[in-house]
Amino acid sequence: MQALVERLYPICRSLTGPGNRQTLAIIGESVDLALTELPSGTEVFDWVIPDEWTPRSAEIVGPDGVARARFKDHNLHLLGCSVSVDREMDLAELLEHIYTLPDEPDLIPYVVSYYKRDWGFAMKDREKRALPPGRYRVTIDTTLEPGSMTFGEAVLPGRTDREVLISTYVCHPSMANDNLSGIAVAAALYRLVASMPDRHYSYRFIWIPETIGAIAWLALNQDHAKQKIAAGMVLSCVGDEGPLTWKLSRRGDTEIDRIARLVLARSDLDHRITPFLPAKGSDERQFGSPGFNLPVGLLSRSVPGEFRSYHTSGDTPDLVTAEGHAGSLKTAYEMIATLESNSIRYKRIDPHCEPMLSNKRLIQSVSIRNRPGYDMTADPLVALRWVLNYCDGEHDLLDIAELSDVPMPALASAAQRAHQAGLLTIV
Amino acid sequence: MQALVERLYPICRSLTGPGNRQTLAIIGESVDLALTELPSGTEVFDWVIPDEWTPRSAEIVGPDGVARARFKDHNLHLLGCSVSVDREMDLAELLEHIYTLPDEPDLIPYVVSYYKRDWGFAMKDREKRALPPGRYRVTIDTTLEPGSMTFGEAVLPGRTDREVLISTYVCHPSMANDNLSGIAVAAALYRLVASMPDRHYSYRFIWIPETIGAIAWLALNQDHAKQKIAAGMVLSCVGDEGPLTWKLSRRGDTEIDRIARLVLARSDLDHRITPFLPAKGSDERQFGSPGFNLPVGLLSRSVPGEFRSYHTSGDTPDLVTAEGHAGSLKTAYEMIATLESNSIRYKRIDPHCEPMLSNKRLIQSVSIRNRPGYDMTADPLVALRWVLNYCDGEHDLLDIAELSDVPMPALASAAQRAHQAGLLTIV
Amino acid sequence: MQALVERLYPICRSLTGPGNRQTLAIIGESVDLALTELPSGTEVFDWVIPDEWTPRSAEIVGPDGVARARFKDHNLHLLGCSVSVDREMDLAELLEHIYTLPDEPDLIPYVVSYYKRDWGFAMKDREKRALPPGRYRVTIDTTLEPGSMTFGEAVLPGRTDREVLISTYVCHPSMANDNLSGIAVAAALYRLVASMPDRHYSYRFIWIPETIGAIAWLALNQDHAKQKIAAGMVLSCVGDEGPLTWKLSRRGDTEIDRIARLVLARSDLDHRITPFLPAKGSDERQFGSPGFNLPVGLLSRSVPGEFRSYHTSGDTPDLVTAEGHAGSLKTAYEMIATLESNSIRYKRIDPHCEPMLSNKRLIQSVSIRNRPGYDMTADPLVALRWVLNYCDGEHDLLDIAELSDVPMPALASAAQRAHQAGLLTIV
Question: What is the 3-state secondary structure (H, E, C) of A104-127?
């Protein structure tokens, strides 16, 4: 994952354009990706697909002859979707088009003007304050004209057409944790899920531009989204070593939310559950708009917007680590494994009393149990008694995991053995 | 409010009588008050309106010739509703008619005998213990005979006949926090509500004798109370600087209870929410009797019965302050403003995804948001996104305020702007 | 209770056999006990009644001529349901049949082989490690052949056939807290309930072998159990001075669970509520199997399995105390008294406002109440106001006790007085 982040880092992505296609082509090397090109001008709900943007070069040459804010030095220097400009102006006029972070004077901020034609530069505040007075030559060479917006999808079919949606975004220029980590973890997760035998759910992975990409995908798949999506997660900022964070889906108590609580609660890593906030985050805001209200949450480490280098040139590949990515991937995969385990519903055949276990080779005949300090969660008999009591047609394995502190894999295994012994039926 | 308290303080009020009419006349100087006179003997549910009481004078002259417990010195000296007496007796007999607080030897207690004909005096315990032995001349000059019970009502009509009830009591003799503060805050609140433009609710303010007054008002307005009252509050002990206190209505989760939680939680003042207790408090006990079960709570500062000078001569105008009254008035008014804001129900016209805001001049095109430390609750875009997501036909603005930490006025303003931009409809 | 424990301690009980009949005969001295003999081979749900076991003697004689692990010294030395054996063997072979607790080297563990024919001994680990090498003579003289399993029942009829079930077990050899304390408290509780006048509920006490006894009783009384049992408790480990513990019934919120919460919360003793766990405990696991799901919890002091001498020779009569037993008995009896109080449902005749109490001699006419520090829970007027407000047809006395902090006996008494005064009707 770290290598993929480093490889994708230099590319200048936006809502549209060649950088996005190049990114999707690299993802497609390890994922069976289908691309969609949506023409500029297409209406998607309240929105319109914008013109395609191709940045080529940009710089400011000062009265001292020094070239500054060069696009080729850092693609964050150029305002996202900036139009072309080529002329001289005084410092005062130039400053109206320069964006900085006064409280972070050594970081270039990430600034865009997606839906209003404008030009501009972003730079370090320290550099801006050192600009000498005088005449500046401003050159921006871009194209912003009808074309298309590109996104990629990959589906891993399961036994049913109930779908799990994994969504991440591909629209940020050079930033590592906010954007590339999600791309990399999604690609790795795709390969893990591809190797799961006998999947109950189908899995749909989408790599899309943030906001308008999600809106476009939902517009194109409106009925499908409402009828088929059983669970989902957006991946964002999953590469640093901040605490594992699940932002609840809008409904807050769906199966995937409960699974996230369970998996995080048993994780060795720091973790937290945060409520659904419509004002902040990523595409879970679109999936969780009231017309869809899908069971899709957001998995992150540090929360978007809450780490220092967020949306700046400080968000480099140094910020993300193998360990950070691995913790996110493991969590996402455990959530999916739990979802799969919970797709089988067992029920006691005769629900009266405990069954006789020793005659079914389910327990040893002579044993010393229940001594003080005895670790019950590790005892297969304990898992067995939980499933034999609570597989009553009203509780699924997730309910039992929540009630019992017994790990989900132990419950799933106990239920399988009880099923083989003729004590449980599959509903 | 402080001036009104001081002006009303010397008057001797009871369930009935000239002191009550004088009090209501003074309230009527600033409030458009309609008076009701209910004749003695009228049956109101399980109760009967008592005879009217007119106290004129009372004193005890001792063997030393000293006059004590004179009604003209403090009207708490005379047992409320005491009958007349004029005779000599020994100290022993006299003591059976004298009430004191042994644990507060310098305070005269407030004692009444509303429903059993009796005579008596209240005095400081220190004074009682100093009474010399010998013969005493006891003189009480009162009238207790058929007349009527008086109460006042003032209605401020709104667009609808759904009503908010503001109730306080006018039956205590010289006590400031317990009684006069409620009268004063209710009168000031009346004037504030009168100046609110375009009220959704109608507002009914009642100044009544405690318990029997509330019972009489409910008996006279039984169907009206059950059908029209949408919310209400009793005001009691709202003049000191104790923590703002909302005693929940009997149902505990009505709109006005939730609003009280919200407004208090965001108050700068100390505050607390207490459960509904039927055994203690004021007229919320009658409004919250099972046959009515109205959404009416109790707003107070110090809780009735829980401050040291409660129901004694220590409850003087010195106990209440301009700041104490103002905090109560502000809270009650904010609760009403929140209730009014929440009377409009908005709903997304097309609920799919977030609308495009920049093309509707609802947000700036270029902006740097979501930096660490950014104060989201102050951002109009944040309020806008909350209402655009949660105005789904299932949540009202109060729900959103509870979910979001965004202040109600910001939500109301965001909803208005989104309505003007054609994104929300009014249900 | 202590005396009964000491008298029963030496007897060797098991699932079946003469020790059980002897135990039930002793219980029957103070309880009107009906015995059931269930033949070996009878099928009860998934189980079969085992053969009857009669142990007579057992010992190991070593190469040094010393007799060890003698049944006559401690009946825990012999593996429960061990078959007979009489032969010589080397130490190595013998050790395969010896059970010890390495972490408690001075305690003999309680070991059984109920459902697989085997022989064996239990001893102190320290003693086992000192066994000299060489030839051993092993002698076990038992009978294991068709007979019957015995259990006892005693019913105290009430006004209705709704039943309260009190269950405890009689299958452990010499252990005091785990087994005998339950037998003793159940017998004492039987006598207390027998002396309660005018019982609403009928009370069924059962003394049964653990697990298979409960399963057999449920099999024989399947419809009765489902239709008649209104509440119940299993008694186990109720003789030590550990904190009073109520393990919730499977449903967790039944009337008896709520009563346990209430009674324990107001107990002077340490106490705790634990969730229903199907993997650990006593016969509440059978009563709480999904096919029955009865409102039956477990009352204990120390929790079975969680005290040091549990299931060992350390669980002697010294471990249980008069105070320990008394605290359990008092708690169980208060729970039953609360259940009886709550069986009468009162309702206000006219639910509007508070009734006039002074004219019904329900309160004094002149009083000084509500002073700071006033103890409201001790005031009969407080209890009266609670029942007059909340006896609305939706709340029973238990609801009111939970809401109010007023003790149940005070509420029951207030409701009776209000009923006599014509304010409440019995539903």
Answer: CCCCCECCECCCCCCCCEECCHHH
**Which subunits have 3 or more CB–CB pairs within 8 Å of chain B?**
A, C
The tens digit of pLDDT for each residue in A126-140 reads 999 999 999 999 999
**Interatomic CA distance for residues B131 and C271, integer angstroms:** 54
Output the CATH code of domain C53-144: 3.50.30.90
Q: Is B55 helix (H, G, I), strand (E, B) or coil?
A: strand
Question: Is B388 in contact with A278 (Cβ distance < 8 A)?
Answer: yes
Tokens of C283: 């016969």
Beta carbons of A291 and B355 less than 8 Å apart: no
User: Looking at chain B, which residue has its C-alpha nearest residue C385?
Assistant: B279
pLDDT of residue A230: 98
Nearest to C352 among B45, B118, B120 (CB): B45
C310 DSSP assignment? T
Compute the nearest-CA separation of A369 from chain C (Å).
Answer: 8
Residues of chain C contacting residue B99, judged by C-beta atoms under 8 Å apart: 366, 368
pLDDT score at C359: 73
**CATH number of the domain located at residue range(s) A54-143 in this protein:** 3.50.30.90
Residue of A nearest to C112 (CA): A366
Distance CA C208, CA A406 (A): 31
| String of DSSP letters for C334-350 | HHHHHHHHTTS-EEESS
- What the block records as the tokens of A125 is 């505040």
- The bridge status of strand C229-235 relative to strand A34-39 is unpaired
Of the candidates A286, A291, A306, the beta carbon closest to that of B372 is on A306
- For the stretch A363-407, pLDDT in tens is 665 555 556 666 666 678 899 999 999 999 999 999 999 999 899
**Closest listed residue to residue B205, CA positions, set B226, B223, B229:** B229
pTM of this structure: 0.92
Kindly report the nearest CA distance between residue C357 and chain B, in angstroms.
9
Cα gap A153→A134, rounded to integer Å: 51
The structural domains of chain A, with segments of one domain joined by +, span 2-50+148-341, 54-143, 346-426
First and final C-alpha spacing in chain B: 40
Cα separation, C342 vs C235, whole angstroms: 22
Tokens, residue B298:
């109790």
ipTM: 0.92
Dihedral sign, Cα of residue B264, residue B269, residue B272, residue B277: negative
Token digits for C195?
A: 């002396």
- Secondary structure of residue B365 in the 3-state scheme: coil
Residues belonging to chain B: 427
DSSP annotation string for B282-342? STHHHHTSTTT--SEEEEESSPTT-STTTTBTT--GGG--HHHHHHHHHHHHHHHHHHHHT
H helices present in B231-282, as ranges: 255-265
Backbone angles phi, psi at B164, to 5 degrees: -105, 125
Q: Quick one: CA dihedral B363, B367, B372, B373, positive or negative?
A: negative
How close does chain C come to A356, measured CA to CA in Å?
A: 6
Of C352, C365, C389, which has the smallest distance from its Cβ to B218's Cβ?
C352
Q: Which CATH superfamily is domain A2-50+148-341 in?
A: Zn peptidases (3.40.630.10)
List of chain B residues with pLDDT < 70: 363-378
Q: What architecture does CATH give domain B54-145?
A: 3-Layer(bba) Sandwich (3.50)
- For chain A, give the mean pLDDT: 95
